[in-house]
Specification:
This is Retrotransposon gag domain-containing protein. Residues 23-75 form a coiled coil. By secondary structure, the chain is mainly α. The protein is 66% helix and 3% strand. The chain has a two-stranded antiparallel ribbon with strand order 1-2. The N and C termini lie far apart (161 Å).
């Protein structure tokens, strides 16, 4: 009996071993299945998210397309109405249609800029251009400071950033702007520089030189010069013969003298060329043409000046050396002397 029982137990143990192995294998299979299910669930979530995004994008694109279609229909309706009206006008009034076709278009101007660093920058010129821009564009008063800020660049923009909070209106800006970029001292420096330029007469580019200094002097307020005074001051920059012509001519307008300087410069260039090639540089004077004789600083008798310049050259402790004026300038004394000169001439 005992032996049979042991045999049964051994057989039972042998049967349980494969069953446990199968159970473990089944458990591993279930774990793999659960993992796969989780992965599929995550993929499903991401897929739904992608579908939702595509759906939203599609709806947005459909809305954009719908809006474009509506805009196109509106434009088509407007264009059709315009064409119908044009056809009607052609039928009813050809003259009105012709006037409409040839109606001038508004002039487009660019917004001026100012940096204070470019040679072409001038404070007063900028203020004039910005006023023209305001008028043309019909800028509201409350928006002018904003437009001015957009016009300023470089050094001027940095300066504006420091005083921006103290600008209630456009007029305040103009005052501070001129005080900083075109002060009275700056203007006097320009005037004195123009006066000193006459110490060494120029030999070429008469028109360009005359135009540059007329542009500089016409903006001055300290001292204030009229056109005739500015012309006489700039005349001192030229050789003696041209000075005599400018100071004695009856043509006292900028454009007249500017054009005449072009003729004189061309004549002078021809004279120099003739001298180099061995020809004669002398031409008989007539009513329309005055020759320039500058050889060895000699001046023909008929070019002797008949009157003194309106503005005398500002020089302190002057000495005449080889026909050229050399001296030192004192700015304060120069200002006082020039003011006395203007008062005497006005009287």
């Amino acid at each position: 009996m005992g032996g049979r029982r042991k045999g049964n137990q051994s057989e039972l143990v042998d049967n349980l071993i494969p069953t446990m192995e199968q159970f473990r294998q089944l458990e591993r299979t279930m774990n793999l299945a659960n993992t796969k299910i989780k992965e599929l669930h995550q993929d499903n979530i991401e897929l739904r998210k992608t579908i939702d995004e595509l759906k939203a994008t599609s709806e947005q694109q459909c809305e954009i397309l719908r809006q474009l279609i509506n805009d196109a229909e509106s434009k088509f309706i407007v264009e059709t109405a315009r064409q119908d009206r044009l056809i009607k006008n052609i039928t009813e009034s050809p003259e009105r249609v012709r006037d409409a076709i040839h109606r001038p278009q508004p002039v487009e101007i660019n917004m001026p800029t100012f940096s204070g660093e470019r040679p072409s920058d001038h404070p007063k010129k900028f203020l004039k251009e910005i006023n023209t821009y305001f008028t043309h564009k019909k800028i509201a008063d409350e928006d002018k400071i904003l437009v001015i800020e957009n016009c300023l660049q470089g050094k001027a923009a940095k300066w504006f950033g420091m005083i921006k909070d103290a600008l209630p209106n456009e007029e305040t800006f103009k005052g501070l702007f001129l005080k900083h970029f075109f002060s009275e001292n700056t203007q006097w420096e320009i005037f004195i520089k123009c006066t000193e330029a006459g110490k060494r007469p120029i030999r070429t580019n008469y028109q360009e030189h005359f135009h540059y200094w007329m542009s500089e002097l016409r903006f001055l307020d300290s001292p204030k010069l009229n056109e005739d005074q500015a012309i006489n001051l700039i005349a001192k920059h030229f050789p003696i013969a041209i000075q005599a012509y400018i100071q004695t001519t009856q043509e006292r307008k900028f454009i007249d003298i500017w054009e005449k300087l072009g003729e004189l410069e061309n004549n002078d260039r021809s004279d120099r060329q003739n001298i180099k090639t061995g020809g004669s540089g002398w031409r008989r004077p007539n009513n329309d043409q005055i020759p320039i004789a500058q050889i060895n600083n000699r001046q023909p008798n008929y070019l002797q000046p008949e009157k003194k310049a309106m503005i005398k050259t500002i020089c302190i402790d002057d000495e005449l050396i080889d026909g050229e004026v050399e001296g030192s300038l004192n700015q304060d004394e120069s200002k006082n002397e020039y003011r006395e000169t203007l008062e005497t001439e006005d009287q």
